[in-house]
Backbone:
């Protein structure tokens, strides 16, 4: 037993080293530049550090307006001390997700231990998680959702294990930290936390004997009260954010609402058919089912199609093909276990049948899909990191079952070599081979590929440095072609523009259809839609897609 624990600890810390090395290596240059959201986080953190206000002059607001894409303050607040230590650096912006990812690994280990996973199964689950493309990417790029996911897992650890039954004060404190932390770093937990609370009695009360039932009831009721109180206060305080985010749901998107009008008009006016088939519940229900199904599609999970290009490494997805395969097996098994639990519970008219972890994972999977189901731009990775985590754990269970099956069939010494070969082949197929391919793409191919880096439009910082060194006269004005609308914040970040200069010179455009307000002017830089919009600038900077680089041209007057 002692030797077994010793080897487990060796492999566990080996995985921690692998995680740390693959996240910190080249973190400031891979991806090649900050995306606009990261730059917005970084520069607003700098402004908060130096002036106590964000780019709009609001003092430590709960919601940062940024360029209109309102963000809760949590992640930006975490970057403030990072900038105090590391200064204006991409590392300062991205380091919180590396730390959060490490926390996710540690909490996952604790959760699986409480769910009675064997040491081997836990190591396999952690190894699978650490090398999955979604986890690599989301712990290298400054996604607020990664930190929020850490806090949600903290809540799951408290809610759905027995580790804190004897430490209620600790459980209450961690519940408050998890609830507040998850909501203040990302908006999705506003929808999922109440659903997690609803699962508590099914997990705790019904699986306890009479002696411990009273204590279990007190436990889940107390942490439920703390979670709902924290959630309620934040929900009331974030109404502005909720109103803005409602515009990117299927209920608030103007295009989808127009689709519903056209759908309803297909049926005879005021007819029974229109009332039954043309009602909004059926229409939006179909949308939600379709969005949910897209999230499972191999094209999305393995190739990020159709998905946002910022959310995955070029020409990759979120899960390896081998992981997707065993994950689908795990989902099928968890669905069967959940259905069996529900049937037994209803047959007894009371929920006296214990909920075990497979049924719980199925319920967590459904909960994790709620933000995606109502999203107008599904499938969506950032809103479903918990979903990817559930798939990884379910895939681990299926893989462990496969390995156990091989071991049971190979009982004779004669076939022992075959058993070892098959087990080794599975480890190579699911862990070694796909991770070698992915990390080769990330660390070797990506830095050398203009096409792969084009999504982030790299080398903007170098272009600005050239402009500042070669054309340093204060009367030398520069136009920057900015078709996306975010370049002003990247300019402020990579110029390391002093707060006073930014505040005094920033000019913003009028809000667009979804109330985004982009920068029009900062310092001596003016941002235009195309090169023909140059007025009296001496130089124009634009992204040349055919060359995959920024180009500086002198304006011919």
Residues:
């Amino acid at each position: 037993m002692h030797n077994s624990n010793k080897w487990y600890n060796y492999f566990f810390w080996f995985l921690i080293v692998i995680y740390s090395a693959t996240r910190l290596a080249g973190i400031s240059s891979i991806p090649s530049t900050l995306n606009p959201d990261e730059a917005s986080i970084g520069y607003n953190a700098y402004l908060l550090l130096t002036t106590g206000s964000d780019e709009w002059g609001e003092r430590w607001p709960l919601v940062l307006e940024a360029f209109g894409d309102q963000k809760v303050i949590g992640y930006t607040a975490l970057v403030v001390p990072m900038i105090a230590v590391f200064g204006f650096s991409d590392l300062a912006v991205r380091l919180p997700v590396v730390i959060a990812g490490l926390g996710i690994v540690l909490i996952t280990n604790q959760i699986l231990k409480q769910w009675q996973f064997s040491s081997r199964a836990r190591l396999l689950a952690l190894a699978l998680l650490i090398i999955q493309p979604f986890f690599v990417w989301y712990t290298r790029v400054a996604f607020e959702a990664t930190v929020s996911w850490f806090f949600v897992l903290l809540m799951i650890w408290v809610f759905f294990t027995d580790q804190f039954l004897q430490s209620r004060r600790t459980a209450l404190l961690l519940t408050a930290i998890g609830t507040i932390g998850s909501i203040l770093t990302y908006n999705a937990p506003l929808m999922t936390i109440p659903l997690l609370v609803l699962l508590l009695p099914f997990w705790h009360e019904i699986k306890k004997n009479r002696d411990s039932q009273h204590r279990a009831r007190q436990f889940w009721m107390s942490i439920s009260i703390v979670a709902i109180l924290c959630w309620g206060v934040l929900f009331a305080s974030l109404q502005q954010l909720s109103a803005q985010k409602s515009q990117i749901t299927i209920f608030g998107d103007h295009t989808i609402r127009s689709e519903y009008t056209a759908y309803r008009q297909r049926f005879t006016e005021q007819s029974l058919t229109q009332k039954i088939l043309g009602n909004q519940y059926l229409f939006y229900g179909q949308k939600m089912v379709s969005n949910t199904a897209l999230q499972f599609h191999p094209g999305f999970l393995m190739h990020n199609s159709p998905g946002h290009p910022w959310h995955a490494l070029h020409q990759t997805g979120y899960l390896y093909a081998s992981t997707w395969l065993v994950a689908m097996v795990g989902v099928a098994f968890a669905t069967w276990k959940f259905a069996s639990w529900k049937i037994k519970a209803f047959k007894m008219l009371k929920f006296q049948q214990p909920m075990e972890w497979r049924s719980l994972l199925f319920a967590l999977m459904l909960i994790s899909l709620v933000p995606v189901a109502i999203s107008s731009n599904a499938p969506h990775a950032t809103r479903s990191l918990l979903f990817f985590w559930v798939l990884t754990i379910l895939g681990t269970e299926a893989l462990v079952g496969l390995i156990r099956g091989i071991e049971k069939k190979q009982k004779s010494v004669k076939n022992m070599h075959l058993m070892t070969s098959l087990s080794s082949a599975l480890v190579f197929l699911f862990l070694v081979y796909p991770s070698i391919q992915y990390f080769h793409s990330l660390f070797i191919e990506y830095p050398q590929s203009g096409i792969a880096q084009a999504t982030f439009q790299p080398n903007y910082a170098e272009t600005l440095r050239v402009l500042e060194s070669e054309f340093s006269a204060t009367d030398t004005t520069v136009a920057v072609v900015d078709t996306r609308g975010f370049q002003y914040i990247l300019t402020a970040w990579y110029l390391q523009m002093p707060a006073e200069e930014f505040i005094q010179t920033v000019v913003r455009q009028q809000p667009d259809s979804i109330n985004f307000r982009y920068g029009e002017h900062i310092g001596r830089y003016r941002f235009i839609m195309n090169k023909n919009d140059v007025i009296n600038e001496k130089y124009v900077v634009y992204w040349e897609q055919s060359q995959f680089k920024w180009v500086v041209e002198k304006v011919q007057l």
Notes: The chain has a mean pLDDT of 86.
